[in-house]
Amino acid sequence: MIALSASTDSERRALLAAYRRDGDLAARDRLVEDLMPFVRSVARRYAGRGEQLDDLVQVASVGLVKAIERFDLDRDVELLAYVFPTVVGELKRHFRDRVWSVTVPRRLKELHYLLSRQLDEMTATLGRSPTISELADAAGVDEEEVVEALEVGRAYTTRSLHGSIDDADGDVEPIDSLSGEEEGYEATENRAVLAAGFRALDERERTVLHLRFFEGLTQTQIAVEIGVSQMHVSRLIRKALAKLESEIEEEP
Amino acid sequence: MASDRNGSAPLPSRGVSAPPSVSIGLPVGDYIGVARLVAAGFASRLDLRYEAVDDLQTAIETVLRSAFGPDDHATVAISNDTESLRVAIGPVRSNALKRRLHEHDGVDGIDLDSLLGRLVDDVTMEREPIASIVLHVDLAAADAV
To answer: Do residue A244 and residue B50 have CB atoms under 8 angstroms apart?
Structure first.
C-alpha cells in the first residue's frame, strides 16, 4: 500500500510556488519532508530484488527532487500524480544500470545481498562492524563462504549512483540533490579536488575519499554521512583508489 | 602513524589455532584478488571485524597496485603474534613509500604512506629477507571502537 502524505495538493502547490517564486528553501524542504513517506513506500515496492531499502529510498529521493524541479505549476495535474512516475522511472533506471560485471553463481549473489544487509543491521545493533565469524553465524554459513561472498561484491557495478544520472538540465548527483552545501567542508574539500589525481574522480568518489583519508571517518561513519550501505562505501573507496592509480600511471 | 582503527578482537576465541604464517607468491597483474581473499581468510581467524578486514584488503591492494607493475611478481607474507597481524609485501624498491599518489604544485595530496596509515595501524619498511612494505594491524585495539 502506498503511503499518502497528510497535505492536500493545494498546500503542496503553495509550498512549491514559494520555492519557485521566492527561492524559499524551507518551503522546498517542507515539501520534500511531506512527500518522503510516499517516496519511501514506492521504494519499498522495489525491495527484495537484491537491493537494500536505504539505497532504494535514496534513488527514489532523486526522483522526488527531479519531480519538484520539473513540475509545471500551470498544469492542471496533481503534484503527486507527477511525482509517482518520476520516482518509479528513477528506480527502474537504477535497476537497469546495476549489473554484475562477471558471472557470479546465484548462491554467492544471494549470500552477498544477505551479508550486505546483515552488515548494516549488525553494525547498528552492535555499535561496531561485526566480525567475519559473527556474520557467518548470523547467515548460517562458514567463514570461508562469507569471505568469498564479500569478495564477489567487487564484481557488482553501481553506475547509476554516481555520475550517470543524466538530467535534462545537467547531471544530478544524489549527494548534490539530497544535502546542502557546507561552506567549511567545501573549502577543505578543495584541497583534494585541486590535486591532479582527484580530477579523475566523480563527485561522490571525491567525497568518500575526502571523508575517509582527510577527515579520518570510518566506513561505517561515511555510510551514515552519505546515506548508503557500508559495503557500498567500501566499493566506492576501492574504485576511487584504483582510478587514482590509473591516473598516475598515465601521467608522464 | 595513523591510529584510526576499525576494530579487531583478541586472539582466537573459538578454540581455533591461527596458522603462524601464510605466504603466497603471485603475479601482480591478475592475482590481486587472490591476495585479498587469502588476507581476509587469515584475518577472519583472528576475529577481526569486517571493517578492519576490508581496510586491510584495500591496503594490500593499494601496495600491490602502487609499488609493483602488472608484470611483477610479489610475495605476500601474512603472520600474527599475540599483539598484531602483519603483512609483508615485497620485493619493493627502498623508496616505494616515498611515492605520492598524486601531487600538484605543492597542494596537499595523499602520499602512499599516509593513505596506508589510515587503513592499518602502522606501516614500516623491512630490508630482510626481502625489501618489503609491512602493514601492521594492532589486535589489541579492538576496544578502541
So the answer is: no
